[in-house]
Amino acid sequence: MRWTGVDSDFAAFVEARQHRLLRSAYLVCGDHHLAEDLLQGALVKLALRWNRVREGDPEAFLRTVMYRDAVSWWRRFRREQLSDAPPERPAGGDDVPSRLVFEAALRRLPPRQRAVLVLRYFDDLTEARTADILGVTVGTVKSQASAALRKLRDLAPELGEMVGKDRR
User: Fold this and answer.
1) Which of the following CATH numbers is that of domain 92-163: 3.40.50.1970, 1.10.10.10, 3.40.50.300, 3.40.50.620?
2) In this predicted model, what pLDDT tens digit does every residue of 50-78 receive, in sequence order?
């Protein structure tokens, strides 16, 4: 891709990381179009601050912006649908690939729990780094991860070992 009028370091940074960041954004919001919007907005914010951030850790800055914006969106446009009845199991659950079952269960988690799981286990960040990005304490990251894993086990028991047991 040829970039004109853009700092070459910024362009190289974006090209090298955009696909992985888009996958992370998708896992956080569960919708491809929203993920593109989320990443695009974060990249705009990074571009505006590139001269100040470039020598530090621009990817950390970008992830922080992306996850905080995602949580802000969820607060404004709550997508939860509350119900008295437990969720129905998908028909033919045995022939549905685990990835689809996992994505469906992940979308049903509250926003903060979803963000914690994506940061900790998909992006492979430490508890401290996850806490820093989300603006919470390490204890909150631990409790949210534990609650999220427990809820995933309840929502999709067919995932078995993929979700695993809490390690305390």
Assistant:
1) 1.10.10.10
2) 999 989 889 989 988 998 888 777 666 65
